[in-house]
Write a structure and sequence with these properties.
The protein has two domains: about 5-400, ANL, N-terminal domain (Rossmann fold, 3-Layer(aba) Sandwich); about 415-525, 2-Layer Sandwich (GMP Synthetase, Chain A, domain 3), CATH 3.30.300. Helix content is about 30%, strand content about 25%. The protein contains 16 helices and 26 strands. α2 crosses α3 and α7 packs across α8 (about 220-235).
């Protein structure tokens, strides 16, 4: 597809074009049966026709509560083919949170898996606008229509008017997990996603022989664009896996010949626990792509040495489609960086006034390009605040080097100011990750009446670890300044995460818990904090 024409095309048109080209080639490998481009096109056509017959019109919003698998892909495509907008829902949300999203976006329908029927029913109580309920799974006595029946609908899907900016129509609304208050619905057009998928395909050097393993949740922007849309629109295959478990992922790689692994740092850390017999089964994987959170250098180094698979760290917020940058497949990879911008995306470091700063200087990472969202649904003020002109403000604090590689230091909101000095949590996390007995760590700022804020480290240790708070403090003294040494070291069995694997720092900030034995007097003194 010519990128210059993307504003006159939409996702269904581009997928149909690819389905005609690839026909009986497998585009989705699954344990319960593979799907060809032609079969996927036909099934999503059936759903689109059924939606149109049920009264769903162009611009209507249909929510999707579904795990990774063929049904998610068919539903996503079918919704778009009907001219509607897809609203994928986080599977970990509670009924109240789902109800807010359904109401906020004005959803007219909900497609949900039977496993989430109780949550879905509870969320829809009192919402009058949702007249269409489609159930994926076993039949029951509810008012929901069986998904399996709809994809067999014989009628043609509704005609899609192309040209004259058809790509500017709204394709998806992705709700971002806000740190406070309700989430915001990022509105992404067909053109946004087509542009981002084309740039990703070029940046990652995908070919029609690739098979992308998608264990990250497909309701999340990273998995949806890189793991689903990019293969479907560019003629190669995806391998959806319903849940992350290291042995299950490895078995899927072998069974379906996956060549690309998409993950987040926490997954890479857990995969390191596989034995050598299992890690040897990864030899067919050509690259791993990591995003969603900063990749600790210790984990990257250990993963590449163990699996023999290069990890390409990249980045990008949901509002940008989401990919903005990634270390190159061919060319220099710079550990610790998120790489240069992908094709057709511009990135700059801007100061608080919105002016560019020189290479090496710190500022906010900002993005411009055809991938950047249309805005936040129903929130014009939040939309305005998120832009410097046509530059989207990511909220990431970072810098670029002289060769155009970008480095993320921290989220602006995560910066800790101790006695007027900037403390960057990621720098502390890198030091603690390098400790041989630390499995994972996150550092947050706690309010302090004397120092303003102080850094606090929340850790999960490796099995059999014996390190003490005093030992961790001594380790930090060797590598950090006095003002950077955490005031407390709190041990947890596991760190709280969202469904995409990102650690929920806001949960740690809210928590007043102090794990017994790890918030001792020796770990909670003024030692290490500058007055």
């Amino acid at each position: 597809m010519d990128d210059s024409q993307s504003v006159d095309l939409d996702i269904p048109a581009c997928f149909r074009h690819m389905a005609k080209r690839r026909g009986d080639a497998v585009c989705l490998f699954h344990d319960e049966g593979n799907w060809t481009f032609e079969a996927l096109d036909r099934a999503s056509d059936g759903l689109a026709a059924a939606l149109a017959e049920a009264g769903i019109a162009a611009g209507d919003r249909i929510a999707l509560l579904c795990g990774n698998g063929p049904e998610f892909v068919i539903a996503y495509l079918g919704i778009l083919k009907a001219g509607a907008t897809a609203v994928p829902l986080n599977l970990l949300l509670n009924p109240r949170e789902i109800a807010f999203i359904l109401d906020d976006c004005g959803a007219r329908g909900l497609v949900y898996q039977q496993a989430f029927a109780t949550v879905a029913d509870s969320a829809m109580e009192g919402l009058d606008g949702i007249g269409l309920r489609i159930r994926i799974g076993e039949a029951d006595e509810s008012e929901a229509v069986p998904f399996a029946d709809l994809i067999e609908h014989p009628g043609p899907p509704p005609e899609r008017a192309l040209g004259s900016g058809a790509g500017e129509g709204l394709a998806v609304i992705l709700y971002t997990s806000g740190t406070t208050g309700h989430p915001k619905g990022a509105m992404l057009s067909h053109a946004n996603l087509l542009a981002n998928a084309a740039s990703v395909a070029q940046a990652l050097d995908f070919t029609q022989d690739d098979r992308v393993l998608v264990v990250l949740p497909m309701f999340h922007a990273f998995a949806a664009t890189v793991g689903m849309l990019t293969p479907l629109l560019h003629g190669f295959a995806l391998v959806p896996v319903a849940r992350f478990e290291p042995r299950l992922v490895t078995q899927a790689i072998v069974r379906h010949g996956a060549t690309v692994f998409l993950g987040v740092p926490s997954m890479c850390g857990l995969l390191l626990r596989l034995d050598e017999e299992m890690t040897a089964l990864w030899r067919g994987v050509r690259i791993g792509v990591s995003g969603g959170a900063a990749m600790p250098l210790a984990i990257m180094s250990a993963f590449e040495a163990r699996f023999g698979v290069p990890l390409l760290e990249g980045d990008g917020p949901t509002e940008c489609g989401p990919v903005t940058c990634v270390n190159p497949v061919r060319g220099e990879r710079k550990p610790g960086s998120v790489g240069p911008p992908i094709p057709n995306v511009e990135m700059r470091i801007l100061n608080a006034e919105g002016s560019s700063v020189a290479a090496g200087e710190m500022g906010e990472v900002c993005v411009r390009g055809p991938n950047v969202m249309k805005g936040y649904l129903n929130q014009p003020e939040a939309t305005r605040e998120s832009f410097f002109g046509d530059w989207f403000r990511t909220g990431d604090l970072g810098y670029r080097d002289s060769e155009g590689y970008f480095y993320l230091v921290d989220r602006l909101k995560d910066l800790i100011i101790t006695n007027g000095m900037n403390v960057y949590p990621r720098a502390i996390e890198e030091v603690l990750h390098a400790h041989p007995e630390v499995a994972e760590v996150v550092v947050v700022g706690d309010p302090d009446p004397r120092h303003g804020e102080v850094p606090v480290a929340h850790l999960a240790l490796k099995p059999g670890a014996t390190v003490t708070p005093a030992g961790l403090r001594a380790w930090c003294r060797e590598h950090l300044g006095q003002h950077e040494i955490p005031r407390r070291f709190e041990l947890r069995e596991a760190l709280p995460r969202n469904a995409a694997g990102k650690i929920l720092k806001r949960e740690l900030r809210r928590s007043g818990e102090r794990e017994r034995g790890f918030s001792s007097a020796s770990a909670d003194t003024d030692e290490g904090a500058s007055d």
